[in-house]
Amino acid sequence: MKTRVSTLTLLFFLGTAPACLLAQSAGAPTKIGFVSIQEAILSTAEGKKSMADLQKKYQPRQLEIQNDQRDIQAISDQLQKQAATLSDEEQRRLNRDLEEKQKVLKRASEDYQADTAADRDEMFRRIGQKMVKVIQDYAPKNGYSVVMGSDQLQVLFAATEIDLTDQVVKLYDAAYPSDAATSGGPATPATRSGTPSTAKPAAPKPKP
Hints:
- This protein has 6 helices and 2 strands; from the N terminus they run αβαααβαα.
- It has one domain (7-181).
- Helix 2 packs across helix 5 (165-175).
- The chain has a two-stranded parallel sheet with strand order 1-2.
- The protein has helices spanning 7-14, 37-43, 45-81, 88-141, 165-175, 177-181, and strands spanning 32-35, 146-149.
């Protein structure tokens, strides 16, 4: 499963538009900041531990899917390599088994994808709502007229000093330490692109 959250999902928990992140300061020079919301969520202690929880929760199902894939490959290999020696009845039996296992695998894979996506989206929504409050508190106190989520914007250039992602992560961890403590075990930090390298339920890959 990819951990990248869709624009619609981000807009759902952040509000109907990035305007939810706006902090107005009438009469003051415009000071703009950007936050990579997805990266920030995955970089918080709560986000890392939540992703580790999801990985642990779905690992047994992922292993079952991989075992089913190996069984399917074994039957396919047998049909191909022993085609000349297998009786017609045996070939029919193996083909029936293959077809049934493929149907079971398809259903299991679809359920796995849907369940992991739902849990992951709920995690982003839960942390995202609290993160918005952190940003809305931080922005006016530090003179920002506008703070925007760069996930929904095509930012062609931004000076490093207006990227508030790391600062927001620190503020979030300070504001919600108890939430992180009850979320699960440690996970691999997110990369700078906003996509975690290993701390996510990985999509099963067929093995030859």
